[in-house]
Design a protein that fits this description.
- The chain is an alpha+beta fold and 309 residues long.
- It has 10 helices and 14 strands.
- α3 crosses α4 and α7 packs across α10.
- About 6% of the residues have low confidence.
Length: 309
């Protein structure tokens, strides 16, 4: 294949290709693994958004490196494939591939109220009402109109929505979770504070559960981000936008995938010469801890009522 020049815009488009969608289009089967998707053909590999990670090899990357590693393509073949070109039919005289239509990002239309989302998050997930209300008032959490999903919005420093993650509010059956098409993972669900502390979570509900359990009057001074997976993009985005951050707390899930991701992200932080430590939930994640504490308090209250009656 002759040399092909790719513009900066084409490189950006290729780097933002949604890997789960791409893999399904090529007949790959994916299964849910927490907030990520796992390849059935190789259970050590998970994909989320535009990033992949091989937990056995402890390495990962973006769409181009995925096609090079798992499909045996060279750089130009990978780029052409991601940009929607048919390599077999490509005219070798063409110096540049055709421009691919850019996927635009738009928030799902909001419902007239947040009743279902509030009921799910407060009653089923036992989030603290004051913490949840703080996020709702800023438009960071709301209920979508079409399916009544809870939507967790990631904004940039100007308050412009750049990322959104949807989660079904049906507590029965298998949960539906997905990132809205066109989302920029550098701006995943976050709360920017003014202090030097940043705490990193896997999922938005993990983040809200941690705050519900450990919040105090000064919680809003600190920064928090949910990766919506285990990719480093959102964490690195926060470090880039808020240079006052010097201390990172990695509060990922207490399972094998979370532990591997914690070690990987800690290495990234140390390379930036920043302070890093791990916060580990007792159960699998922070919401399980929150729900377990709620259940324990309920039982203790019942025992107290019985003892005084």
């Amino acid at each position: 294949m002759s040399y092909i020049h790719f513009s900066d815009e084409q490189k950006r488009q290729a780097s933002l290709v949604d890997l789960p969608e791409f893999l399904r289009s090529r007949g790959e089967k994916l299964v849910r693994s927490g907030p990520e998707l796992r390849m059935t053909s190789d259970h050590s590999v998970t994909v989320s958004g535009n990033e992949w990670y091989d937990h056995a090899a402890e390495q990962g990357g973006g769409p181009v490196s995925f096609l090079k590693k798992f499909y045996g393509m060279n750089y130009q073949q990978a780029m052409l494939t991601l940009l929607g070109e048919d390599i077999a039919l490509l005219d070798p005289k063409i110096d540049t591939p055709r421009e691919r239509i850019k996927r635009s990002f738009a928030l799902p239309p909001a419902n007239g109220d947040n009743r279902r989302a509030f009921a799910y998050l407060l009653k089923s997930r036992h989030l603290n009402r004051d913490v949840l209300t703080a996020f709702v008032r800023l438009g960071l959490v709301y209920e979508d109109k079409s399916y009544h999903n809870a939507v967790f919005v990631g904004m940039d420093k100007d308050g412009t929505a750049r990322h959104a993650h949807k989660r079904s509010t049906n507590s029965q059956g298998k949960a539906f979770r997905m990132t809205v098409e066109g989302s920029d993972f550098r701006y995943a669900f976050n709360w920017p504070g003014v202090s030097e502390h940043l705490t990193v979570f896997e999922a938005p509900i993990d983040m809200l559960s941690f705050l519900s359990q450990f919040h105090d009057s000064g919680w809003a001074r600190h920064s928090y981000v949910a990766l919506c997976g285990t990719s480093s993009q959102a964490m690195l985005g926060m470090l880039e936008r808020y240079p006052q951050i010097e201390s990172i707390h990695l509060a990922l899930d207490n399972d094998q995938a979370g532990q591997l991701a914690t070690r990987r992200l800690a290495k990234v932080v140390r390379e930036k010469r920043l302070e890093v430590n791990a916060l580990v939930p007792i159960n699998k994640d922070w919401n399980e801890d929150l729900c377990a504490n709620f259940q324990q308090e309920m039982e203790e209250n019942q025992q107290h009522e019985q003892s005084v009656s």
